[in-house]
Amino acid sequence: MKVLGIETSCDETAAAIYDGQAGLLSHRLYSQVAMHAEYGGVVPELASRDHVRKLLPLIQAALTDAGVQADEIDGIAYTAGPGLVGALLVGASVARSLAFAWNKPAVGVHHLEGHLLAPMLEETPPEFPFLALLVSGGHTLLAEVRGLGNYQIIGSSMDDAAGEAFDKTAKLLGLSYPGGPALAKLADSGTPGKLKLPRPMLDRPGLDFSFSGLKTAVVVALRNVELTDSSRADIAAEFQQAVVDTLVAKCDRALEQTGFRSLVVAGGVGANRALRRALEQLGRRRGVQVSYPRTEFCTDNAAMIAYAGYRRLAAGERDDLKIRATARWPLDTLKEPKRLGSVIPAQAGIHPDQQDGLPPVRE
After folding, report:
1. Where does the record place the Gcp-like domain (predicted)?
2. Helix, coil or strand: residue 175
C-alpha cells in the first residue's frame, strides 16, 4: 500500500510517500521560518496562506521523487489536529479533495501520534510497549504506548511546554527566531552552574512538568547579571541543563513506575544534543533501549503522518467525506483500531449504501 502523507499543522508545509513494503519513498518539506522571523513567532494567517501556495507543488515533487503516479496511491493521510485551525484546514481540504478526485480512502491523523510513531521509520524501530517522552514547542508529556492508538498519558506540563520555555528564554537573551535552536547553540559555549536555576517540580512526587517558573527565574536572574557574551552563554547553558535534568529525572521516575525497557523520545526538543546525551546515559544505567527519529523527523514532517496513516488505513480505518480539522485534540482520546484486513467498516450511523463508494484499502 502506498500512502500520501500531508502535514500543515503549523508553519511547515510537507508531503511524503510511504510504501508498506518498500518503506519511505520520498519526503518534501518547506519551512516558513524565514517568513515568520520578522514577527518573532508564527503568524497564523500568514502560515495558512503560505500552505495554500506551497502544498500542491510539494505533493507533486514528492510523487516525482518517489517515481509514483497519482493512480498508484492507495490512500491519503493528513494531519487533522491538533494545531492552527486555519493551517490544518488547508491540508485537510487538499487531502480530502484529492481522495475524492482519485477515488481513494483518506484518514485524518493525530499530529502527536505521528511524532510518537516517527521512530518506526528508522532501520531498528522500537517495539511496543514503550515509554514515550514527547517534548516540543507545544507539548511536553510522558505516555505509556502499548500499541497503535493505545496511549495513556502519565505526565504532562501544567503550563509552558519545554520548547516554549526555550523560545521565551531565548527571547529574554536577545536571540533570534527560532529561539530554541539558537539558545542550544549558545549553550555550547557556556558553563552550567555559574548561575543556579531551579529544577521545577523535582521536589514533588509525580510525573508532571512545569517550566513557566524556570522562565521567571531567568527573568529574575537577569536583573542581577551584567549581560555580556560570556554571561549570556552561561545563562543559556544553565537553563538548558535545568530543562534536561528535569526531563531526565521524570523519565527515570516513569521507567521505574512502568517497568518498561524501551524509551522513545520524539518532538522538536528531542533533537537537542544535550538531552540526547543525558537520556542515553540514563538508558545505559537502567539497561533501557532509547530510540529517536532521525533529526529531520523530530520536527514537523509528513513522513511520520504518512506512516501513521498507513498503519490506520491498513487496519481498515478511513474517514467519511467530512473535512476534519481539530485545533485541540487530546491524545488519549484516540482509539486503537481493530484489525479488519481489506474490509472497510461501515461509517457510524450511515447505511453502507449511502457511503461514498471509496475502494477498500490494499495491502
Report:
1. 24-307
2. coil
